[in-house]
Amino acid sequence: MSFPANNDIVIPDYLGEYGKGTAQMDKDRRNMPEIEEEEYEQIRKVPLGEDAEGGEAASSRPARSRKPGSNRKEEGTHRSRRRGSSRGKGRGRGGVPLAPLFLACMLGIGAGLSGGYYMWGYEKPYMVDLKAVEVPSWVEQDFIRKNIFSRPDVTITRVNNIVIHYVANPGSTARSNRDYFDSLADQDPEAGGTSSSSHFVVGLDGEVIQCIPVDEMAYANSPRNSDTISIENCHTDETGEFTQATYDSLVKLTACLCDQMDLTSADVIRHYDVNEKECPKYFVDHEDAWQQFREDVDQAIADKSWEDVL
Ligand SMILES: [Zn+2]
Question: How many CB atoms sit inside 10 A of residue 70's CB?
Fold first, then answer.
């Protein structure tokens, strides 16, 4: 039996906890609201701005003589005096009007917070129940054994992209590729070994085997394993071009998953787009064929044509 030379990820013997930990960190990072540098600067300026104001005022008079009751008025007069004089002499920093600066800071906080809430709110809700996603009747579900090398039993909670691959082993079948992923379970965890898998494999005759449930992580395209679904595709020769049967099944399977996972063809990407691996080779070498594939996926989503294949 020939096995595919698909060594997308080689994980050493300490893989077990490390692999899961990395996946979890990856997921956590994804769920954190990101703050743009500009917004961060605006937020950061607020305490510094207040400091600067108080500091300047304090430094221009004896610090210990300040009394709580007189502060406000004193600051007010000091401020206006300073503003007036610096305006006259055209000085840079001292000439910034404080009220507009304060307003600008408040606007900055507002923008930062609302931006943060927006991103947080945008990122958080995920309405797709991955456990409820169904595959077409012509997909054979033959899950591989749970093991640290190819089915790590890590739950994924959202799918942002569907990633297309080719097996890089001309002539190999969907069955042999599925069995290869399963056979990785027999490696000695102490000794380390090869780590690789995929949710689906599409065969030369258009047959499809599902190796891993869609709410579990596969080892197909690091570092995006924790929020992607992977589809491997068989091919007959080194060019990596798919047979018409493989292509048709791939289009319909991808459309079916997109439809249920609230994705469009814009969310369908190549392994190449994840980490620049030359995979799937034909779609990397032929950009026009890749764009055509995406259009065909869109058409299939519109037609809901996945039920009439095979
Ligand atoms: Zn790949």
Answer: 10
